[in-house]
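hi! just following up on the protien thing from before. the input was this:
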Amino acid sequence: MYLELSYTNNTPLPAKHHDTDGYISWCGSISKSVSPSYRLGWCLPGRYLEQYRHNFAAGCYGVNVILQLAISDFIDSGRYGKLIKSRRSRLLELRHEYLAYLSLHLPQNAKMSDPQGRYVLWIQIPGLDTQAFTTKCSDIAVFETENIQDYYFLIEELRDSKIFSEPYFEIVDIFPAIENGFVEFEARLASV
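and the predicted 3d structure came back as:
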């Protein structure tokens, strides 16, 4: 998904391009880049075509043919390409803003990925033990403050910033953590 939202002018080839034996099922969706309400996509299931047909038939409640034709016209007219180009440009602007903001607020030893498109930014912070608080974390942003009020103000500023007021990022959960908290805990435990 989001393959067409690369920041470069050349859309990267999907893994399916290199699959000569049909082991990769390639799924895509115009809904991700145009509108989530369309729920319109495709699948190239390779050698799993019969399984796909069986599973699709069990869960499919019909396809909106009028919507398919409208999207086809939208693509053929060139307007889809223009939309994607403008979305790429806006995402790239947001990426620069986001990386600049995080560079100022993350610890010096934090490492950030250099995303070339889509909506994912990987952040690694050595010594951060988020699993002590939750196992739900996969993509995280970490903000370090001296006290809880500064942390609260930071989150409020972030919610009001373009980073989250644009529809590209969403705060799903906030998990407080203490850097190297397990070290302090073990030390306290050992002293008792």
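The first strand starts at residue 26 and ends at 29.
The helical segments are 49-59, 65-76, 79-105, 148-160, 162-165, 181-191.
cheers
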